[in-house]
Specification:
By secondary structure, the chain is an alpha+beta fold. The protein contains 13 helices and eleven strands. Strands 6-5-4-3-7 form a five-stranded antiparallel sheet. It has a four-stranded antiparallel sheet with strand order 9-10-8-11. Strands 1-2 form a two-stranded antiparallel ribbon.
Length: 337
């Protein structure tokens, strides 16, 4: 028998009112028989649980009875931040703690506020992952969450995009970030002598790219002046600066401009809005947009089809023409028709 589960049954009845044994079992992930036994144990302990038979019946607490046994455990307090993000909590291995913390919070509220909180929960839902992408597999996410909270070093093997692709790292995790459904760990990296390179800016690692990880017993101190939010804002700004190394001049139709947000990065959309000038009475505009490599820009702009024309640089214009020509040949289309 779990004392924590009995408390959960008590708090469920206090926050929800009348509940059937089946509803209690489904809420706690136990069998209906176990739910019956738990209610009987509560009654045996002197808790005034009343049974109401018949259709629409169930168990409820005697009118006016309330318990103040709502103290949170350390794990539940940690999980409270993710109360509105159940998927993120599950990824971190905190689903049970979030459920318990939420239940205790609801039980501590007066009836009116509890009902309002319940209504609010039914009309808001957070879905973090982006469109057109399966959620990433992150088997070591809970390990990094533990390491971050307990400040322990992680021995990790990591796959990166440049050679050598597989590298080993001793990481001191400072924090975790969920960005568009993708988890990142921000960590200081130790040098070959085992000393953290704390004077350098911490690095960002995509958790799904961790091939193997082991939590060590070695502890570390996170710098007192490190702020995760400020670091992440700086990282994003630096990433954008490194990402866009060139510019292109394009002509864009009215339809192409409407389709722009669904096909290119927000930085490109903002650049069009800032630099667009009319080039005729047909609604076409000319604009200067940031670009990565010619190959990447070609792939993005081709999504707009005939609604875009690259004017410069010549290398990108040539890449667009070469790609379109190759497509035409693949489909058996020649200049002669």
């Amino acid at each position: 028998m779990s004392a924590g589960r009995l408390l959960s049954v008590l708090l469920l009845l206090q926050s929800r009112g009348r509940m059937s044994a089946r509803a209690i079992a489904e809420e706690l992930g136990v069998s209906v028989r176990t739910a019956y036994r738990d209610v009987e144990r509560l009654q045996g302990a002197g808790v005034p649980v009343c049974a109401e038979p018949g259709r629409g019946g169930g168990y409820r607490l005697l009118d006016g009875y309330r318990t103040r046994l709502t103290g949170m455990t350390q794990g539940e307090a940690r999980a409270l931040l993710f109360a509105g993000l159940p998927d993120a909590a599950a990824d971190l291995g905190l689903a049970a703690e979030v459920s318990a913390a939420r239940l205790k919070l609801l039980a501590a509220l007066p009836a009116g506020a509890r009902e309002e909180a319940a209504r609010t929960a039914t009309v808001f839902h957070v879905d973090a992952p982006g469109w057109y992408r399966e959620p990433e597999q992150t088997p070591y996410l809970s390990l990094f969450a533990d390491a971050t909270l307990t400040r322990r070093v992680v021995e990790a093997r990591y796959r990166r995009w440049r050679a050598p692709q597989e590298v080993s790292r001793r990481l001191r995790p400072y924090g975790l970030v969920l960005k568009s459904g993708v988890w990142y760990v921000v960590a200081a990296t130790e040098d070959g002598t085992g000393t953290a390179t704390a004077t350098a800016t911490p690095a960002t690692y995509r958790v799904a790219q961790v091939l193997d990880a082991t939590l060590s017993d070695e502890r570390f101190d996170r710098p007192g002046d490190f702020e995760l939010g400020a670091y992440w804002a700086s990282y994003l700004a630096d990433f954008a600066a490194r990402r866009y190394t060139g510019t292109a001049t394009i002509r864009l139709s009215p339809r192409g401009r409407r389709r722009l947000p669904d096909n290119v990065a927000p930085e490109v959309v903002r650049a069009v809005d800032a630099t667009a000038t009319a080039v005729g009475a047909d609604g076409w505009v000319e604009a200067v947009v940031p670009t990565e490599s010619a190959a990447h820009a070609c792939g993005e702009l081709l999504r707009l089809g005939t609604d875009v024309e690259v004017l410069a640089p010549a290398a990108l214009r040539r890449a667009m023409a070469d790609t379109v020509g190759a497509l035409a040949r693949a489909y058996g289309v020649t200049d002669g028709g």
